[in-house]
C-alpha cells in the first residue's frame, strides 16, 4: 500500500468517526463524497480495463557478449477515448532461476488514443542464460485508488557469452612434449650429404637415438637435436563457492573464472599449443580437450556456474588430473578457495618439474587471501596472481609469468 492510499484510508476512518460522533445529516456529506469517489474510480477502471495493448519488437539476436547492451523497443497503446491517469511499466532481466539482475521501471500518463514508445537499453552484466521479460503493466484509475494489472506474455531467452580479453604475451613453457615430432636430420653417406626426415619420440633415450642414426647412415653419429615439440596448459577451474553466498558475488566470481580460462585457452590454441580444461560439474570431475577455436567456444559456453551446491574440492581435482598422462606441463589453477593443502599440492608438482600457476580470484568488495597465505605462496616459489576480474588479470600479464601479487 503506497502513501496516497494510506492517507486516503486515514481520511475515510477519520470521516466515519466524525460522523458517528456528531450524528448530524451534514456530517454524512464527506462520507458520501468519499464513497462516491471510490465507486467512480472503480467504474472508471472497468471502462479502461481492455483498452491497453503492449507491443514489443522481437529481437532476432539471441546471443550477446557480457557487458554489451541492446535496445528493446516497447510500445504501449491506449485504445480508449479515456485518459490513463497513471501507467507503471516494468521490464527486467533475470536468470533461469528467477534471480533478478536488472530492472527498468517507468511511470507516465497516456492520453486518449496515444501510443507511448519506449526505447529501453538493457545491459547484460553476467555470463549465462537469461530472460528479458515484461513483469507487468499497472494502470491506475482516478485518485490512484484501484490498480489494474496487465501481464503481457512476451519474453525472450538470451545467452550471454564471456567477454574476450586478448593476451599479447604469455610464456607457455615446453617441458614435456605431448606428441611425436618429425626431425630433419642431415647425414653423410659415401661423401655426400643427404637430408631426410625420421620420427623420434620425445623422451627416447639418447643411446636409442644414436643407434637409429648410426644404423641408417652406416656409421656412428652424434647429433644434437633441437625439437619443436609442442606442450601446453591444463586449466583447472574451481566452481565451488565456499565464501560467496550472495548471487551477485557468485556471478562476478563466475565471470572472472570463465573469462580468464577462455583468454588463456584462446592464446594457447592460436599459438599452436595444447590446452585442456579440468573442472567439476554436479560434483563429478570432468576433463575436456578442445581441438579448435570453434570447439573451445562450445566447451566454454557449456561450462557450469559457480554454485554453493558444488562441493568437489579443487585440491582433489588438481591431484586427480595433475598426475595423469593427459595433464600438460603448465598447470593453471583458477580458484577463489585458497588453502594450505592446495599450496602443498602445487609445490609438489613444482618439485616434479611441472609449472603450476595459481590465479586467485577475489571478490571486488572483500579480500579472500590473508597475509599468512600470501607469505606461504611467496615461500613456496609458486607463480601466482591475485585479481578481481579477467581484465584485471590480463592487464597484469607481462611476458613470462613471474611471481606477482596484483
UniProtKB/TrEMBL annotation:
The chain crosses the membrane at residues 7-26, 32-56. The keyword tRNA-binding does not apply. It comes from the Bacteria. Residues 196-283 form the DUF58 domain. Keywords: Membrane, Transmembrane, Transmembrane helix. InterPro entries: DUF58. This is DUF58 domain-containing protein. It comes from Clostridium cochlearium.
